[in-house]
Structures are given as structure tokens and as C-alpha cells.
TrEMBL record, chains A, B:
Name the UniProt record assigns to this protein: Nicotinate phosphoribosyltransferase
Organism: Mycetocola tolaasinivorans
Keywords for the protein's UniProt record, in alphabetical order: Glycosyltransferase, Ligase, Phosphoprotein, Pyridine nucleotide biosynthesis, Transferase
Uppermost EC category: ligase
Post-translational modification as stated in the protein's UniProt record: Transiently phosphorylated on a His residue during the reaction cycle. Phosphorylation strongly increases the affinity for substrates and increases the rate of nicotinate D-ribonucleotide production. Dephosphorylation regenerates the low-affinity form of the enzyme, leading to product release.
Similarity comment: Belongs to the NAPRTase family.
Nicotinate phosphoribosyltransferase N-terminal domain: residues covered: 7-131
GO biological process: one example: NAD+ biosynthetic process via the salvage pathway
InterPro entries associated with the record: Aldolase_TIM, NAPRTase_N, Nic_PRibTrfase-Fam, Nic_PRibTrfase_pncB, Nicotinate_pribotase-like_C
EC number: 6.3.4.21
Pathway listed: Cofactor biosynthesis; NAD(+) biosynthesis; nicotinate D-ribonucleotide from nicotinate: step 1/1
Length: 436, 436
């Protein structure tokens, strides 16, 4: 498999460059902007995820001999464009919301400043990463709220494309999950991994008791035993008989959880296993988690719903050309007028206005080139991510992932209470454009 | 980036192997089966996709030094298991439905025969691939039906993880789409690629007319011009004025399509551009496509809905241990009894029963080791995919992808008319288990 990310690109990005090069417009100085017109699922806020991962992919966005040969053979672009692609690396500027930042409709999450050709070619990759990772983070942050401080583990790899699964584990971690089952996510992004045994392990052995003995012999009594392969009550009894009252946890993966969890807690306590925890993993989403708030659950494992964005598998972000540098050096705002898809052109400076008590109450998007003064009531949202082609190292790798996870906590702590309602509704903080 | 697929695995697969090795059960001869308990979205049939891609990933499922070192450092498994992993390659048998085959609830899509350890370790990867690719194919096949023979192009890369996008392009192609915008899918799987220009290209230029001239100069008059950046009627007029009446196509990406398409067709005809085609690309799904059946649309571009499975982003397939070889050499059926998740153990032979006119009317799953006689009324569904670790080359690469695309046409042609209803409902063909 090739490791260049350069062909993770829609063909029309290259044909546009081809035509613009012939016309002499490919080198126009441009601004592209990523934003979402709405929050899918009528959620109250979104969480930016994918930025650090994207920066690494932009670093690897180079056309090697294999890519150029394929483009030549398939007659995608002409020789001038092939020569230009051979020397391509992104040399412009990118700034944007920090990874882990909260966003609202029309928040300018990422801005790319470069020649037309240099910027347009990144459209597909930028959107693939931000749309998927933010969709996962948007779902995950709601689950974290619903879990009222109890730990969550992401275990949905099997319900997502194998590479998407790694990105999902990372996005869920940034949004507050504590661990993942995905080993590659552990290796690539430094995320804690977890997991003990599945039903197959119990079925493999002559009896549930034998399976539990095998697991405890190898993994110790602090492990988690899956007790619902046959009969939960008998499974719990066997688990404590085999492991003793110091058993770490039992896992429930079926049944009506609010009822079952309460019964199992009583059974464990009656057996003297008062310290044995209960983890649940049965098709949970934010609503099921919220429905267990008053049940004696100790932790949650979430699969399908988090890796598929809990009903909103793409964050509906778009990448739009919003300005072109005019002959006088000033930005000329550009905006299409398509029905239902009109956009606001020009350079923008986003600020989050905070109340005296530090609560976010407005997303203020200043239009024009003047940067507004930052004061105690407005927090600037943009940070430099790439400066003259140099990627800000701070946001890369495991360290960047950890930083994004911290930043989400800070950003979410500014939100008004209405942001945490799970019901569909309007964004918790209104976005306003402020002309200059 | 590492190219081994071995860590695309849930941690518990490895801890189960670790415990089973210590207990002496890791080498038990086992059968694992992939099936879906239901068709998500209450669809009438499903299309298997991902198999050829999966076989290549299984070939690359090897633990190299980097993987072993990471597992050792993070104390995931003990030394005996690390030694076993170092020598791992799949040496068992895999058989299953052909890629492109139709399936129903409980169809045993894939069966893995191997030692417990050798088979259980593939669970996560197998499900990641089949669940995502089949989810896309399940959505795409309905869109193909709704398009009543008009060509469809997949252009949803920006709304899916960057690697998922490549898999989605492949799955949509297998399900009958004719092309993709994704260049990497073109390179990796031999899928035709397409695309010309976006709104950004029009915005970049001083006028729509100048943008159209630039595009036509480079791409010729047989190109597709996007006419809705400003005003559609003016855009169409400009397009024909610049390109002449031989213009290949115009693209509409906004507005109320049934009305707009009819108006634009009339305008094109009035301008003499009777051969200029109309392609539409505005947030289409199978229902929107069906709603355009009586409109003069020539082709469709589909994005978000196809790459996200049109509301069902994972096919809900599971990978279950269904049998273990007993001391006498016979398969012992295994099945858990968890509430709402009970399964049917044992070896199975799936056949599709056909009426005298060749119409599928029953999915017959024979239980037990006797292979039923195949006759004119029953079509055997299993083919060998891996034999003693040797992968069937026929199904790999671009050739395997093309074969799967052909097979879907044949399999779908057997379906009863009820299968093509877009409304929610029961599977079009009932699945029955037949004991021995």
C-alpha cells in the first residue's frame, strides 16, 4: 500500500488546477474556509476533531512517482500540471480552531491561505478528516455528559471501516472517553487500550466456570468477566465463586439494563463482592446512557453509536473559497449565491464572547481584515496551525491528541447549561457576523 | 505509517488468545460465522461487499517487529503469545458468499475454519470491512434501482474518513455505480474516475463566463459546466454561448430539482443544445433519485448518503463462534443464549431456492455436515475464499472488484419485485433453517 495521501482527492480538484494553470489563474492568492452551516442532528454544540491528524496527512500530501505515473497514464491532467504536482508541498498558512474546541453553525473552523491551486487541492482530504472525526466527537461529547462522570470506553472498531476505526477511537478520546479497544489507536495516538474477553471465549470452554478460571489464571482477579453468555444470575454466582469477592468487574452485554444492573448489583453485594464493578456494553448511545444515570453502573462501553456519530455520521462541513487577493493587495470577498447554499465571503476573525461569570453567550465572527481587540469578555478562537508551510509540531502525535483532550474540557466548561440538553434544538450559543 | 493490519484489532482478541494458550484451548478446531440478525433500515435485501478487500488485508495480517514491540512494551500479552503472534499467518479455510451476492437476515456470509486463536484474532478486521462496505453497497444498490438505468457517480469522499472513502467508492461500484470522484479508488481498484469543476473555480475567475472559457479551453466542449454558482438561467445561457450547442453536460447542485431540471431542459432545447446532458448532485439519496424518475435527468452524482449507508452506516454483521470440533471429529454446535441475541450454532450450508422462472423465494440454511445436493431449484451460495491459508486470487484487486460488480447484477436479477420497494418492510426472501 502506498503511504502518500495525495490521491485521497476528488478528481475535479486536479482538473480545476489544470484549467486554472492554462488560464493563468492557478496562482491567485486565495482564502479557503471550513465551516458547517448547521449542527447535524439538531445538536446544541459541536466539538472540532481531526485537526492534528489532518496536519500529519497534509505533511504526507506529496505526489511521488507512483502517483504521477498513474495520473499520466489515466490522462487526468496535462504535463504542466504534472510538473507542478511533482513539486507540490503545501507552503501556505493554515489557522483555525484548536482541536477539542467547541463550534457552532458557521464557525470558521479552519482557514487556508495559499495560491488557488495549493489550497483547492487539499479540499477533499481536509473535509474527509474533519467531517468524520468531528462527527464522532460530536456524538462522544454528549455521551460523556450523559455518563455523569463515569468512565466510557470506545469499542466500535468492528462497526466502522478499519482505518476510520482508528480515527474514531482518537476522536472519542479527545471528546472525553477514557480508553479504546483498538490497539492501532493505542499505538498511533497513545490512547489507553482495554478489553478482556468475548462470548466466544466462554463458548470455547467446556463450561462457563472453566472459561472464567482460564481468564483469571492469566489475567488475575482484577479482570472483567462477561457473565451473560448463558444465564446472568448463574454467571454472576460462578464468577464470584471462581474469582472471589475481589473480582474487578463483571460485564453485561444484553438484556434490559436498568432492571438487570440493579439486580446484579444486589446479587454481587449479597455475595460480598461489594467492590466488584459493573460495566455495560449493550448497544448504548447517549440516550441509553442517560437512562442509566440512576442505575448502579460503574462504566460504559460504547460501540456502533459513537463510531457512526449516533445518527449523524458526517459533520456536514464544507470547504469554500471565501476571498481572493485583489490587485491592491486587499481581500476581495467571494460567495456563491446557490439556492439554499449561500455563503458569506471574506476574511473572518472568530471570537467567543463570555459573560462576567465566564459563560459563552455569543460566537462573534468579525468580517474584514481588522483583528478585533481581545479583552476579558472575548476569547480569540484561531491559532496558527501551519505557517509558511511549517506545521505547528505542538498539535501532532500523541502529545497533540492529549492536548486536544484537555482543551475540550476547558472549552466545554464555558458552555451554558442549555448546551447539555440531549433533545434536538437550536445551537446553545448564537453565531453573529459583525461587519467592519 | 505501518502497513501491517495486525493491530486493527480489539485488545480482547489478544487477551483471549493469551488466556486460551495458557489453558491449552487456543488450538481447539473452530468454526466462526459472519451473519446479520436483521437488515438495518428495514430494507428488503442486502449486498455483500468488502470480501475481496478483506482477503488482501488478511494477507497483510502479520505481526512484525514494530507490532510485537508495541504489544510487549504495553504488556498486552505474555511471551508465549508474542512468540505465537510472530509466526502468525492465517493457515485455515474461509468460505462464504461471493462478493456482490445478495443476502438476507441470518445468511452465513462468511465462515472461518481454523484453530480458536487463528480465527478469533481476525474478528475485528473481518467485521470492520464487511460492516462498512456492505452498508455502502446496501444503500447504493437501492439508488441504482431508483435511477432506472441512468448512470450514477459516487462523490462522497469528503463526507467519509479518507480511507473509508476509498472503500466506499469500491462498494458503490460493486453495487452498480458507474464511476467515482476518488482518485485513490481509481488507482487501487480500477474504478473509472470522473469530475470537472466546483463552485470555487467559478468564484476564482472575474466572471462565470471567464471560468467557463477557462474550463472549456482545457477540457474541451464535452466537459460538464456547473451552472448554479450565481443564477441558473443566466448560467445555462452563458454555458451554451461559450461552449456552443455541443456542450457535453451541465451540472445542477442546488435548488428544487424536479422543477429546475425541467426548466433547464426546456432552456437547453430552446438554445439548440438538445444533446447537452443534465447531471444533478444536490444531497441525493435513493428517495430523491426516485423522485426524479419522471424528470429529464441524465445522470446522478451521490455524496453523503451513499458513503454513510443512507441512514444505516454499519451493516450490523457479527462474527460468532458457532462450532468446535469434538473428540470424535464431529462439529459440536455452540451458541450463546443472551437475551435478544441468541444464535444458532453448528456448521451450515446456505442455498438459494429459485422458482421455475428463476426467481428467488427462499434462503435455505441447511444445518449439519451433510452438504445438500444442488439441483436446478437451489443455487449453492458458498465459494471457497481461502484454502489452507492460500487466498483465492480470483477475488483480489481490480479484477476481483469487476467480478463482484458482475455478480451483483446476476444475483439481483433473481430477486422478486418486492425486493425493489424502497419503503421499510420485511426481507423480500424469507430465511429458513433446515435441520438434518
Amino acid at each position: 500500500m502506498n503511504t502518500s495521501t495525495a490521491l485521497h482527492t476528488d478528481r475535479y480538484e486536479l482538473t480545476m488546477i489544470d484549467a486554472a494553470m492554462a488560464r493563468g489563474t492557478a496562482e491567485e492568492h486565495c482564502l479557503f474556509e471550513v465551516f458547517a452551516r448547521r449542527l447535524p442532528g439538531a445538536r446544541r454544540y459541536g466539538v472540532v476533531a481531526g485537526t492534528g491528524r489532518l496536519l500529519e496527512l497534509i505533511r504526507d500530501f506529496r505526489f511521488g512517482d507512483a502517483e504521477l505515473e498513474w495520473l499520466r497514464t489515466h490522462d487526468v491532467v496535462g504535463q504542466d500540471t504534472l510538473d507542478w504536482l511533482a513539486n507540490y508541498r503545501f507552503r501556505g498558512n493554515i489557522w483555525g480552531y484548536r482541536e477539542g474546541e467547541v463550534y457552532f453553525p458557521n464557525s470558521p473552523i479552519l482557514t487556508v491561505e495559499s495560491s488557488f491551486a495549493e489550497g483547492v487541492i487539499l479540499e477533499t482530504l481536509v473535509l474527509s478528516v474533519l467531517n468524520y472525526d468531528s462527527a464522532v466527537a460530536n456524538a462522544a461529547t454528549r455521551m460523556v455528559t450523559a455518563a455523569i462522570g463515569r468512565p466510557l470506553a470506545e469499542m466500535g472498531s468492528r462497526r466502522a471501516n478499519e482505518e476510520a476505526a482508528v480515527a474514531a477511537a482518537r476522536a472519542a478520546y479527545i471528546a472525553g472517553f477514557g480508553a479504546t479497544s483498538n490497539l492501532e489507536a493505542g499505538r498511533r495516538w497513545g490512547i489507553p487500550t482495554m478489553g478482556t474477553a468475548a462470548h466466544a471465549f466462554t463458548l470455547l470452554h467446556a463450561s462457563e466456570e472453566e472459561a472464567f478460571r482460564a481468564q483469571i489464571e492469566k489475567l488475575g482477579t482484577n479482570t472483567t468477566l462477561l457473565v451473560d453468555t448463558y444465564d446472568v444470575r448463574a454467571g454472576v454466582e460462578t464468577a464470584i465463586r471462581v474469582a472471589g469477592t475481589e473480582l474487578g468487574a463483571i460485564r453485561l452485554d444484553s438484556g434490559d439494563l436498568p432492571t438487570l444492573v440493579t439486580e446484579v448489583r444486589e446479587q454481587l453485594d449479597a455475595l460480598g463482592a461489594t467492590g466488584t464493578k459493573i460495566t455495560v456494553t449493550n448497544d448504548l448511545d447517549e440516550h441509553a446512557i442517560a437512562g442509566l444515570a440512576n442505575s448502579p453502573v460503574d462504566s460504559y462501553g460504547v460501540g456502533t453509536s459513537v463510531v457512526t456519530g449516533s445518527g449523524s455520521p458526517a459533520a456536514s462541513m464544507v470547504y469554500k473559497l471565501v476571498a481572493r487577493r485583489g490587485a491592491d493587495g486587499a481581500w476581495v470577498p467571494l460567495a456563491k449565491n446557490s439556492e439554499g447554499k449561500a455563503s458569506i465571503g471574506g476574511k473572518k476573525t472568530p471570537m467567543r464572547r463570555l459573560s462576567a461569570s465566564g459563560r459563552a453567550n455569543q460566537e462573534r465572527i468579525y468580517l474584514g481584515e481588522t483583528t478585533p481587540a481581545q479583552d476579558v469578555t472575548e476569547r480569540a478562537l484561531n491559532v496558527p496551525l501551519v505557517v509558511n508551510g511549517e506545521i505547528e509540531e505542538l498539535y501532532l502525535g500523541a502529545a497533540g491528541t492529549a492536548l486536544a483532550r484537555e482543551h475540550r474540557v476547558a472549552a466545554v466548561s464555558e458552555l451554558p447549561a442549555a448546551a447539555f440538553r440531549l433533545a434536538r434544538g437550536d445551537a446553545a450559543v448564537p453565531t453573529v457576523f459583525i461587519g467592519n
